[in-house]
Amino acid sequence: MSSRTYESRARTHPTAIGRTLLSLMAAKKTNLCVSVDITDAATILSLLDAVGPSICVAKTHIDIIPFSNSPSSIAEFTAALSALAEKHNFLIFEDRKFADIGSTVKAQYGGGVYNIAKWAHITNAHSVPGPGIVAGLKEVAEELGVTRALLMLGEMSSKGNLGGGEYLAKTLEMARGDTEFVMGFIAQCAVDTREGEDWIVMTPGVDLGRKGDGLGQQYNTPDRVVREKGCDVIIVGRGIIGAEDKVAKAEEYRKAGWEAYEKRVAE
Ligand code: 5BU
């Protein structure tokens, strides 16, 4: 696990998005990614405007939004989302979990109704299909002329998932094939790092109180995942969006995540 500061890693991270992310994390003192798993587009936008100062990343599932209310078009929503990212200096992560061959993910990432590559700085992919998935996604970013980064799914948070261990080790090998596009992993712990490597680990399944959700989700505290396990970014959904005072709750998670990080780099 890294005892280096986000600031120092921001200067040397091999991916451009990684450098941007680590540097804004240091500037805003936040390692909190809020997962806006809300189906009303306008509610997502107003929530992000309110919690924007507390977060480094906004994670979306664009395919859960019916776009039946205003904003009623995907393009209008993604433009407003991008404007908020600019305003509050956070990045957008579409949690799409691509899982097909290179040629198919190219079409899914670059087109369809969502045009994910046009507005999401970060997306993620399963390693099951092999390295062609990384190459396909990267080609989309290159063809569009945009700076994008990928997180590989090495281990999920849910009970009984097949990731971690050997699977994570093989995913890490795959990531090593493209260190300019793959910025890190979705995992529950820091990954084995060779001299000169730096992987950003983003971790879902974080909650300050609950242990699970009855559908397989498993939660750990910010202290456990950041200080003890060496992860870099905490991903929090219902812990924040389910709270009465979402802004205060986001600040509570930001503080908990930041304190855990400060302890880790001091240890
Ligand atoms: P929660 O409300 O904090 O449990 O939401 C977690 C979010 O992270 C939700 O959007 C999931 O789809 C997402 N997630 C996850 O929970 N576990 C994983 O391993 C991955 C994503 Br990858």
Automatic annotation (TrEMBL):
UniProt-listed InterPro entries: Aldolase_TIM (IPR013785), OMPdecase (IPR014732), OMPdecase_AS (IPR018089), OMPdeCOase_dom (IPR001754), RibuloseP-bd_barrel (IPR011060)
Keyword terms of this UniProt record: Decarboxylase, Lyase, Pyrimidine biosynthesis
PANTHER family: OROTATE PHOSPHORIBOSYLTRANSFERASE, URIDINE 5'-MONOPHOSPHATE SYNTHASE
Keyword Iron-sulfur on entry: no
Biochemical pathway: Pyrimidine metabolism; UMP biosynthesis via de novo pathway; UMP from orotate: step 2/2
EC top class named in words: lyase
Substrates-to-products reaction catalysed: orotidine 5'-phosphate + H(+) = UMP + CO2
Pfam families named among the record's database cross-references: OMPdecase (PF00215)
Enzyme Commission no: 4.1.1.23
NCBIfam families given in the database record: pyrF
Signal peptide feature range: none
Family designation: Belongs to the OMP decarboxylase family.
Identification of the protein by name: Orotidine 5'-phosphate decarboxylase
A GO molecular-function descriptor: orotidine-5'-phosphate decarboxylase activity
Lineage: Eukaryota, Fungi, Dikarya, Ascomycota, Pezizomycotina
Enzyme active site: 95 (for ompdecase activity), 97 (for ompdecase activity), 100 (for ompdecase activity)
Domain of life, source organism: Eukaryota
Organism: Sphaerosporella brunnea
Residues binding substrate, per UniProt: 37, 59, 157, 217, 237-238
Biological processes, Gene Ontology terms: 'de novo' pyrimidine nucleobase biosynthetic process; 'de novo' UMP biosynthetic process
Domain named Orotidine 5'-phosphate decarboxylase: residues: 31-253
